Amino acid sequence: MPPDYQVAAGLDVHKKFIQGTILWLNGTKIQQKFPRTPDGLLGLKDWIFEYKCDVVACESTSDYWVCVYDLLDDRVPVIVGNAADIKTLAHKKTDKIDSEMIALLALKGMIAPSRVMPRSHRDFRKLVRLRHFLVRKRTDIKNRIHSILDGELFHLSRILTDIFGASGKRILQGILEGASVDDILRSLPPHVRERKKVELHDLLNQTLSQGALMQLGHCLRVVKQLDTEIERITDEVHAYAVQKYPREYQILTSVPGIGTIAAITLLAEIGDFKEFLSGDRLASWIGIVPKVYQSANHVVKRSITKRGSRLARWILIQVAHAAARTRNTVLRDWYEMKKAVIGTGKAIVGLARKMITIIWHLIVNNEEYVDKYTESESPKPQKMHTIRIPASPNYTLEEVLTLLTDALGFLKKRDPDPI
């Protein structure tokens, strides 16, 4: 049953301004434009309270809606609707028409409110997202360093697995400081120096151009600064997660494939798991379920919806890859079974969805993950053989029966003594 709203305010929120419309049930409307500044927001607040609006609605456009929500939520219900859903119901023409349509949909109770987390949790989530942003930038700078070295034919990555490890950093720092080959080699750990002495000696005898050395120095200093900031943010978000969600953090880290960063990210992006009625609802909110198109009895399932948090989906896929590499676990066996049928990519996405539903069940029931396999009881993986039969609506019944007969004959040749 839709709520009994008499007056609704619709806000079309932009970076520099907010277009507002107040709409009554009899069709009366007034519109006004406010700058997105502190004074403009206070003017918007007074305007909404002056006409005693029962509800305020806006789209979840970037983070522009946050200041409006925090300003009005304690005095009047604020609905933050999904922009894609509102766009489906309303054909946008101008900002005024858009704000009027939002007010109309709110007045009729046709906007499904999005989940809005408390401000303290939103600050925690922003900090986690900032950490991931800095990690991506650090990766970009590291790739740039690889490009600089490859452009100078200085193939250090062919000798060291990670040129940004302890040995790689000492070599690059020695090159920047103009140290001799022998001094650089003496600074390396004994096991690296003895195993790769010849390759490193030949490589270090090469010279880098002055321009390459300048670029390399700038990039290494940026990487060092990013390392410091990322480590500092990691300590802050880890302390917050352990203090605010101690049991949830413990349960998450008990699941195969989930480490410290993955657990913190999931807590930041999802928040309270108990707000969802089921694991499937949580998977749908994250956007890791397939799109479904149904007409009469014809049902088509396509790629995942990707409607929720992009970072939550990304970290779940990484967790699924890690779980698929674990040994003697049910998750690994499930992945191997699905991979033989639907392929690697779809199997990983399916495993990610399965894991988030398991995580929801564990947290709601306050249980830690326990795998039913132990190292001594772990079953040997069985290879699955699949036979793909081409199907087409143009085949006749006789042609389909012929294909099935050929397939059965093939199976009998592979297994001469069927059970």
Question: What would you note in describing this structure?
Answer:
- It is a single chain.
- This protein has 419 residues and is an alpha/beta fold.
- The protein has 4 domains: 7-107, Nucleotidyltransferase, domain 5 (2-Layer Sandwich); 132-244, no CATH class; 246-364, no CATH class; 387-419.
- It is built from 17 helices and 7 strands.
- The protein has helices at 38-50, 65-72, 83-89, 95-107, 119-151, 166-177, 181-186, 190-195, 197-204, 210-244, 246-253, 260-270, 279-286, 310-324, 330-342, 344-364, 397-414; strands at 7-13, 17-24, 29-35, 55-59, 78-81, 290-295, 298-304.
- The strands form 2 sheets. A 5-stranded mixed beta sheet has the order 3-2-1-4-5. A two-stranded antiparallel sheet has the order 6-7.
- β6 (290-295) and β7 form a beta hairpin.
- α5 packs antiparallel against α10.
- It is globular and about 85 Å long.
- The mean pLDDT is 85.
Task: Give the end-to-end Cα distance, rounded to a whole number of Å.
Answer: 59 Å
- Number of helical segments? 17
Radius of gyration: 29 Å
The rough form would be described as: globular
Structural class: alpha/beta
Order of helices and strands: EEEHEHEHHHHHHHHHHHEEHHHH
Low-confidence stretches: none
Average pLDDT rating: 85
* Amount of helix: 55-70%
The amount of beta strand, in percent, is: 5-15%
In this structure, how is the largest beta sheet organized? 5 strands, mixed
Q: Biggest sheet: strands side by side, in what order?
A: 3-2-1-4-5
In short:
This protein has 419 residues and is of the alpha/beta class. The protein has helices at residues 38-50, 65-72, 83-89, 95-107, 119-151, 166-177, 181-186, 190-195, 197-204, 210-244, 246-253, 260-270, 279-286, 310-324, 330-342, 344-364, 397-414; strands spanning 7-13, 17-24, 29-35, 55-59, 78-81, 290-295, 298-304.
